[in-house]
Amino acid sequence: MGNICSRSSNNDPDAFAGPGHVVGTSPNSNPAPRASVPTKANWKSTPGRTVGESAGSGPQGGADEARSNAAIAAQKRAETASSANKGKLGAKLAADKAKTQNQTLNEASRDERAARDADKAAEARQWS
Question: Where is the composition biased (Polar residues) (predicted)?
């Protein structure tokens, strides 16, 4: 038994010293010439932006104008939606919203009592 990492006389000591090669090619072939890395623009020469500053904050204030137009349109939609006739379901919803908590609880209690009374009546009919 021997150490896996030990060197023996039949191991090539420089097996991993050189660069690797693609499987299926001979290790003696010269690698293909590489293209040079393109130079980047100097990012330090461009003026920076302040955090929160919009991209169109110069002579073109387009982003701010679009935002205000969208806000006006949304406000108009909200006004027409609130003033429009909602029909029967809308009227019920408005009536439910107008109820106080006590009125809502009393109505729920009445419904529950009515359901209990109906169950008792059905049970009495079953055993009669």
Answer: 1-12
Q: Mean pLDDT throughout 69-95?
A: 83
In the chain, the percentage of residues whose pLDDT exceeds 90 is 27
User: Tokens for 84?
Assistant: 């429009």
CA dist., res. 80 & res. 75, Å (int): 9
Task: Name the residue among 103, 121, 99 with its Cα closest to residue 111.
Answer: 103
Q: Look up residue 91 and give its two tokens.
A: 């009227």
In contact, 110 and 103? CB cutoff 8 Å = no
Cα–Cα distance, 76 to 48 (Å, whole number): 38
pLDDT band at 116 (very low <50, low <70, confident <90, very high): very high
pTM: 0.30
- Residue 85: band (very low, low, confident or very high) from pLDDT cuts 50, 70, 90: low
Q: Which of 56, 78, 59, 77 is nearest to 67 (CA)?
A: 56
**Domain residue spans in the chain?**
61-127
Report the distance separating Cα 97 and Cα 25, nearest Å: 80
Could you report how far apart the first and last alpha carbons of the chain are, in Å? 94
